[in-house]
Amino acid sequence: MAQTEPALYGGWQSERSGFMGNLSGLGFILLAAAAVIAMFPIYTRSWGAAVLALPLSGVLLVLAYGRVLGLSADEWIILAVRHQIAVATNRNLFFSGLFAPRTKDGAQPMDLPGRLARLHLLEAPDGLGGQIGIMHNPIDNTYTAICRVTFPGLALIDTERQNARVKGWATFLRGHCKEDGAITRISVHQRSLPDDGAALRSWTERHMSPDAPAVAVQALDELMQGAGPAAITRETYLSITLSSARARLAVKGAGGGQIGAAAVLVREINAMANSLSSAGLQVTEWLSPRGVAQAIRTAFDPEAQLSLSARNTAADEPRWDGAPKGVAPEVAGPAATETVWGLYRHDGAWTVSYQVRGFPQSEVYATFLQPLLRPRSNARRSLTLVYEPIGPTKARQELAREKTKREAARKLRSKTGRAESEDERRESMTARAQDAARASGHGVVRLTALIAVTVTDLEQLETACAELQADASSAGLEIRRAWGAQDDAFTIAALPLGQGLPDRRVGL
Fold this sequence. Notes:
This protein is an alpha+beta fold. It has helices at about 25-45, 45-65, 75-90, 160-175, 200-205, 215-225, 250-255, 255-270, 275-280, 290-300, 305-315, 390-415, 420-440, 460-475, 485-495, and strands at about 65-70, 70, 95, 120-125, 130-135, 140-150, 185-195, 230-245, 280-285, 335-340, 345, 350-360, 380-390, 445-455, 480.
C-alpha cells in the first residue's frame, strides 16, 4: 500500500566527547586542582591560606564549568590566546598573487591558505575518455573527487515520490557503512548565489535570430532586465573521499601510489552511479582540474562568478575559440585573506561561518532545511553536510558506549535523589532506538553541518547574519558562530572539497 503521509525524521544525537561527563580533559584537571586547593587550608588550619585558596579555587571552578557563547571558559581562553598569537605573528594573514611560490621550472602551483595549503590537485582519467580533478591530502592520505549534481527537489512532488527519494539517499549512505569501507567521507555542498543575469543575456544575444521582430526583442530585453538581477543561482556539489589506508590492498593492485589510489577512487565513483540515480540525483559532471579550481576560485572571489558564468556559457558553443571552461589551477586560490576573531576576509568579500550545534528535537519533514537557502539579494549562502559512514563493528561499540554512559548517569542521579529530566529520558530512548535500528540492518553515520554567509559589502554583513540566524531558527536548528576558527570553518562551509570532521569533537 502506498504511503500517503510524508515521512517524519528525527533521532539526531549529539556525540559525547567529554573526558568525564561533560568535562574535557583540561576541565577535569581544573576541577581536581580546585578541590586540592580548597582542601589545603583545612590541612594547614590557616585562615590566611583560606583567604587566598578559596577565591583561586572558585576561579578554577568557573573555568571548568563556565560557558561563553556555547564554549567552556577554558576552551574560549585557549582559542583567544591562539588567535592573539596568530595575529601577533601575522599568521592570520595570507598573500598570494605576485607573492605566490614558484617551482624550479618557473611554474606556479595552486596556492591556498591555512589548512588548504596541504592539498594537491591531481588529474586522473575518468574511464570514459575524459579527465577528473582529485584533491589529495597527503597528511590524511585521502583522495577526493567532486561532481556537480542536479536534484528535482522535494517540495513540489507527491508524497510517495518524496519519500522514495529520501529513502534512496538513505540507502546510498547505508551502502557505505561497511567494515573497512574505502569511502571514508561523503559531503554535500550547496550554494545560493545572487545572479545578475549576465550569462542569460550572453546566451540570448548569441542565439537571437537577426530577423526577430523588434517588438519581441524589446519585450525579451525588458523581461531580462527585470528578472535577471532578481534571479538566484544554486549550485550543488557531491564530494566522495577515499581513504588510501583503508583501500591499501586495492590501491596496491591498481599500481600503488597516487596513480593506484586515483584509479580505485574512479572505480568507486563509477560503481555508485546507479545508487545516486535511485536517490534522484543526476550527476551533471565530475569536475575536471579546471572545474575544481573554478569552485575554489568563486568561493574566495564571488565577483568572479559572473564573468566565469558568461564565459563558460560561451565555451559551450561549437565555434568558441577562447579560453576553455573553468579556471587554471594556479590561480584558483585567493590573492589575500585575513582571519579575524568573528569573520574571514578573502579578496573582495567577507564571510561568517556557523556550525550547526543542534538539529531539531522534534520530528521534522524532509524539507526542513529549505529556509537556509532562501534567495537573498544581498548575500550568498553555502551549506555543507558532512557524512562519515561507520562500519557495523565500530557502530555497535559506539552505540553501546553511549548507552552505558547514559545508564550510568541515570543510576547516579537516582542514588543522589535527583529527578530525571525529560531531555535525559528522551536521549536514553533515542540511544536504545538507534541501537535497535543498527541491529536490524540500518547504518550509522557521523554528521555535521556548517553554514556560511558571504557579502561583498561589509555594511550588509550583520544584516545577512541576522537573516541567516532567523532562517536557521525557522528550520529548528541551533547554530553557533565559529569564533576564533573562521578560516577553518570556511574550508568546510564554503568549499566543496570534502574536508572532514575531527576525530572526537562535536558531531551530530
